[in-house]
Design a protein that fits this description.
418 residues, mainly alpha, two-stranded parallel sheet, 16 helices, globular
């Protein structure tokens, strides 16, 4: 079990997920200039970025030896991931697993191989890193490997532990799709619950112990929410102002602050308690955020483009920020004090994430989509930045819906095709 001040498995996206999903084939035209075929869930894109920011805050607090806060961003990612994966497959799921691999693997493998190179050339730079053939192979193929230094299952790219859960979820959902598409929610939930019930029987350091941890139940929360939203057309009918989402986020953070005492570190570390004390409030936060979707859609197009871009950055922010933090620490940035260090850290993390997304993740994703996905409508429409238009602005039709989550995991807001 991780120590209470350990910043790693205080969770971050899924991995971040991808809320670029449609609201069904008959989405109404947005008043903020969005075309009728705009299938982006801007509310979830905003929440993805906030979830990634919470994880960054969690690790900043650890650097300053403050009581833990912010790891719940990972719980939010898992709920969003479950929501998106069920929501975007409502009209079909062609090449589901291939799409998920295209969304998650390129950036994760890049980070893993870069770290492997550092581990071979300058191992002293990576304190606590366990580097051997088993860890490298396990990392590349999303198989949990026990790390003696941290006493937890951690891949080479440390925050990739949450992506191991994401990939497990995708695989189980894929199996459920093959068995019965109409019953994918029931089958996936049954397999996840069955797996979780095996946890007491698993050896503590085994991969089964990791895969069967109670975290996987949070994917079910998201899927059940998606089913409810689809049945009630909640997104179309809910009309809460964005201020309601801000108020909900404020309450959520206040409840989880260590100083309030509602959720202690002991509760957070016991996973079956965590999925109730943190998982359910995280689900409620997703519900409240979705209730503001129509208000988000009425924003001006430049604002929505900016929100969407930040949501896309949640994945690279999540998996790379602790290494940005390591560089800043070596440069003596901790001496700046908490407020200044936090500002510098967020600017640096955003800069690195933007470069990784624009220069590598988006081009590689588009290339692989052209090569591996069938049909001209399958190419993902990545966002080249707040000021850049998509090359295919109108191609957001029903065929693209299955492309769901942003990774991380997870997990994002352009449900149509991540």
């Amino acid at each position: 079990m991780m120590k209470s001040n350990q910043a790693l498995p205080p969770r971050a996206a899924t991995g971040p997920l991808d809320p670029r999903a449609g609201h069904g084939p008959k989405s109404a035209s947005g008043r903020g200039g969005a075309p009728a075929t705009d299938r982006t869930l801007y509310s979830l894109q905003a929440l993805r970025f906030i979830a990634a920011a919470l994880v960054v805050i969690s690790h900043i607090r650890t650097e300053f030896r403050l009581t833990p806060f912010g790891s719940s961003g990972v719980d939010v990612f898992f709920v969003i991931s479950g929501f998106i994966i069920h929501y975007v497959t409502r009209e079909g799921a062609p090449q589901f697993f291939t799409r998920r691999l295209i969304r998650i693997v390129p950036l994760y493998w890049l980070g893993t191989l870069l770290l492997a190179g550092v581990a071979m050339k300058a191992p002293a730079m990576l304190h606590g890193l366990q580097f051997d053939a088993t860890t490298l192979l396990g990392s590349l193929f999303f198989i949990p490997v026990w790390n003696e230094s941290f006493q937890y299952h951690l891949p080479l790219l440390l925050l990739g532990w949450s992506l191991n859960y994401e990939m497990l979820f995708y695989l189980i959902f894929f199996v459920a799709l093959k068995i019965s598409f109409p019953h994918r929610l029931l089958l996936t939930s049954a397999m996840l619950v069955g797996l979780a019930l095996l946890h007491p029987l698993a050896a503590p350091q085994s991969a089964l112990a990791f895969w069967s941890d109670a975290y996987i139940i949070e994917f079910i929360y998201g899927m059940l929410l998606a089913q409810l939203v689809l049945r009630t057309r909640f997104i179309e009918h809910a009309r809460l102002p964005i201020l309601a989402a801000v108020a909900g986020l404020t309450l959520y953070c206040w409840l989880l602050l260590p100083e309030t005492g509602f959720v202690t570190q002991q509760i957070a570390l016991v996973k079956w308690q965590r999925i109730l004390a943190i998982g359910l409030p995280s689900t409620a936060l997703v519900v409240l955020t979705l209730a503001c979707e129509q208000a988000f859609r009425r924003l001006g197009q430049p604002v929505k483009a900016g929100i969407n871009f930040l949501g896309e950055l949640s994945y690279p922010i999540y998996i790379f920020h602790i290494y940005v933090m390591g560089v800043l620490k070596r440069l003596g940035a901790l001496k700046l004090g908490l407020p200044a260090y936090t500002a510098v850290m967020f600017v640096a993390a955003l800069t690195v994430a933007t470069a990784a997304y624009l220069l590598y993740e988006l081009p590689v994703r588009n290339y692989l989509s052209r090569k591996l996905l069938r049909g001209r409508h399958d190419t993902p429409r990545g966002n080249g930045g707040p000021g850049r238009k998509s090359r295919q602005p109108g191609r957001t039709g029903a065929r693209q819906a299955p492309l769901g989550a942003a990774a991380a995991g997870g997990a994002a807001a352009r449900v149509q095709g991540s």
